[in-house]
Amino acid sequence: MNLKRFFKIVIAVLISLLICPGSGHATLGRKKAGWISFVIFLLVTILAGFFVNQLVRSAIFEMQKQDRPSLEKLIEVVTQGFKSDKNISITLWLLLLVYFLIPIELVFHEIFFPPKAIEEITPPSEEVKKTEL
């Protein structure tokens, strides 16, 4: 692997980590893999947002029942909900896992399947055309 390719991979990983998971794939020319990674990350983010929204709604509903609701009590109820709700903890761990596995897959693919190795493999249809000429 030459130095130019190495820096492209590093920049792609940084783009994937700092901008949006999957965008690093697109910078290296793997747009389909980038879209797949982005959609997976988006779905897990939506799922985590759904569970957090449910928790906050139930905490606000509980606070409305009290005579004197306070912000400190709301924060305490939401914090306790985060600690006790398994759905939230599982989806947040899954979100972290997906967020960090996407750049790892990017590096893995670039190391073990470099673009030259892919370009050297020619489809059978092109080999037939070359022999006919």
Please render the helix and strand layout as text.
Elements: H1 3-18, H2 23-27, H3 31-65, H4 71-84, H5 86-112, H6 115-120, H7 124-132
Helix pairs in contact: 1-5, 3-4, 3-5
Please name the defining characteristics of this protein.
7 helices, 0% strand, mainly alpha, 84% helix, 133 residues, single chain
What would you say this structure looks like, in words?
By secondary structure, the chain is mainly alpha-helical. It has one domain. 84% of the residues lie in helices and 0% in strands. It is built from seven helices and no strands. Helix 1 runs antiparallel to helix 5, helix 3 packs across helix 4 and helix 3 runs antiparallel to helix 5. The longest helix has 35 residues. It is elongated and about 85 Å long. The protein starts with a helix and ends with a helix. The mean pLDDT is 85.
In short:
The protein has seven helices and no strands. The chain has helices spanning 3-18, 23-27, 31-65, 71-84, 86-112, 115-120, 124-132.
Low-confidence stretches: none
N-C termini distance: 35 Å
β-strand amount: under 5%
Largest sheet: none
Helix content: over 70%
Quaternary arrangement of the chains shown?
single chain
* Strand tally: 0
Q: Into how many domains do the coordinates divide?
A: 1
**How large is the radius of gyration?**
23 Å
Mean pLDDT: 85
Shape: elongated
Protein structure class: mainly alpha
Helix-strand topology string: HHHHHHH
Q: How large is the count of helical segments?
A: 7
